[in-house]
Amino acid sequence: MSAALLRHPRLISLEGGEGAGKTTAINAIHACLRAHGHEVVLTREPGGTPLAERIRALVLKPDEAIAAEPLSAEAELLLVFAARAQHVRQVIQPALRRGAFVLTDRFTDSSYAYQGGGRGLDAAWIADLERRVVGLLPGLTLLLDVDVETGRARANGRDLWPDRIESEQDDFFQRVRAVFRERAQQDPQRFALVDASQVQQRVAADVVARVEQFLQNGEGA
Ligand code: TMP
């Protein structure tokens, strides 16, 4: 028997492909929650603790000593879940317990999209890790959706040194996007899909409107 998966009303995640405008959006959500008088812990994945940030660097920006060794898809999945295990226990659970909101730039949906869709790993294995290692589902997940070409063009203008994942080909990102969209379609209660092809300020405004709606419905109580 696997452990249970509980949806927590004060855990909010932001998801999306490359170049979707997550940074502007997350800052706008942060400001919105604070304006409502809430304590907000703003964090990210992979990362959010010193150890998890080290793991992030291993996965995304391996140094010279290890860069030549191909990282297997399986090791990549287990590394992001190792980081997540720390993040959940050191940061997310304590914050939720004391009544704060946790706003995370990416969460488990990214593993389904990147390691499941992108790398082709079995979603049932990811679901098992999710139940055993995480045990938590966000109350609200904002998915910034943009077609791969547009996202790519934006990210290319920004990143001089693309990381391991940013260096993947378009078909990888098509699969990532397809899984994100599929998950949003399967769980419309939790997901809010936002059109991220719009200008960044418009995307941020849409995202904030969805958060306001979520709060008004008493869902973040
Ligand atoms: P970002 O924070 O700039 O979006 O970079 C994080 C990268 O890590 C992004 O390419 C997606 C990837 N990632 C995974 O592959 N799996 C995961 O579970 C998470 C959280 C992120």
**Unique bound compounds:** thymidine-5'-phosphate
Structural class: alpha/beta
Characterize the main sheet.
5 strands, parallel
Mean pLDDT: 95
Number of helices: 9
User: How many DSSP E strands?
Assistant: 5
- Strand order across the largest sheet: 2-3-1-4-5
Radius of gyration: 17 Å
- Whole-Å distance between the termini? 30 Å
Q: Could you spell the SSE succession in H and E letters?
A: EHEHHHEHHEHHEH
Helical content (DSSP H or I, runs of 4+): 55-70%
- Low-pLDDT stretches: none
Label the overall shape. globular
What fraction strand? 15-25%
Describe this entry's structure for a reader:
There is one protein chain. This protein is an alpha/beta fold and 221 residues long. Helix content is 55%, strand content 16%. The chain has helices at residues 22-35, 50-60, 64-67, 73-97, 108-118, 123-134, 148-158, 170-186, 200-216, and strands at residues 6-16, 40-44, 101-105, 136-145, 191-195. Strands 2-3-1-4-5 form a five-stranded parallel β-sheet, sandwiched between helices. The two termini are 30 Å apart. Thymidine-5'-phosphate (TMP) binds at residues 44-46, 60, 80, 105-106, 110-111, 114-115, 165.
